Automatic annotation (TrEMBL):
Gene3D superfamilies for the chain: Ureohydrolase domain
Species the sequence originates in: Actinoplanes teichomyceticus
Keyword terms, alphabetized: Hydrolase, Manganese, Metal-binding
Full protein name: Arginase
Domain of life: Bacteria
InterPro entries: Ureohydrolase (IPR006035), Ureohydrolase_dom_sf (IPR023696)
GO CC list: cytoplasm
Entry's family note: Belongs to the arginase family.
């Protein structure tokens, strides 16, 4: 397994050890001039460059980053290696806003919608991502949806499933990119998240679902997004390290 660290939240460089896991490769993009979109897509392109040769060699890269937008770079890297993956998206949120529906303006809230084809001129086209068709995307949990997201998902081919139902028989056929936003875990178990949501699955349940998918042999890459604030103390940092260690061991 090759561990790839992308120490960015959007285009903001994270502090050292904010994602407490040893990495084989650390992605450091060359940022162009311009607004936030070219900078985000530079992060995604650099991620794809790091992922593609690992997949081409038959290994499964584990990518860790500070937000969900990097998932597009992971998928693009898998595509550059010659695969056409579906995506299984673990998240407490829907991430299916568009620029028109977002009330907060937080771009991470668009991440899955971007991966499945929204605003291609700002995102996918900029780093060569071929959008995943909505019917080849599964959204696991997503217990916190804004009204516009709920309306979109009610009419979309993207399926929603509880974490407990994620397994070989319920995800699309063929290669998979597994995306795990750590906020899918119940907020009571993981303090310090940027967007905590109570009432979610346990760490055990999320790890078990990842293990079920990994056991299929179809996971081409795994992305773990860590949208949390800097750890306030050693205990919080240790809890994060334990969570990431468990996810790494199931990749």
């Amino acid at each position: 397994m090759t561990t790839i660290l992308v120490p960015y939240h959007q285009d903001e460089r994270l502090a050292e050890d904010e994602i407490p896991v040893p990495a084989d490769v650390t992605v450091e993009p060359r940022f162009p001039d311009g607004d936030v979109w070219p900078r985000i897509t530079a992060v995604c392109d650099a991620t794809a460059v790091a992922v593609a040769p690992v997949v081409a060699d038959g290994a499964v890269p584990l990518v860790l980053s500070g937000d969900c937008l990097v998932a597009g770079g992971v998928i693009a890297g898998v595509q550059r290696a010659g695969l056409d993956p579906a995506v299984v998206w673990f998240d407490a949120h829907g991430d299916v806003h568009t620029l028109q529906t977002s009330t907060s303006g937080y771009l991470g809230g668009l991440a899955l919608r971007l991966v499945t084809g929204a605003h291609p001129g700002k995102y996918a086209d900029a780093f060569g991502l071929r959008p995943v068709s909505p019917e080849r995307a599964v959204l696991a949990d997503a217990r916190d949806l804004d009204p516009a997201e709920a309306a979109y998902l009610a009419a979309s081919a993207t399926r929603r499933l509880p974490v407990a139902e994620i397994g070989a028989a319920t995800v699309p056929p063929g290669p998979l990119v597994l995306h795990v936003d750590v906020d899918v875990v119940d907020a009571g178990e993981l303090p310090g998240l940027r967007f905590p949501v109570p009432g979610g699955p346990s760490t055990d349940a999320v790890v078990a679902a990842c293990a079920r998918l990994t056991a299929t042999g179809r996971v081409a890459a795994m992305h773990v997004a860590c949208p949390w604030w800097p750890a306030a103390d050693g205990a919080r940092q240790a809890a994060r390290a334990r969570l990431l260690s468990r996810l790494v061991s199931r990749s």
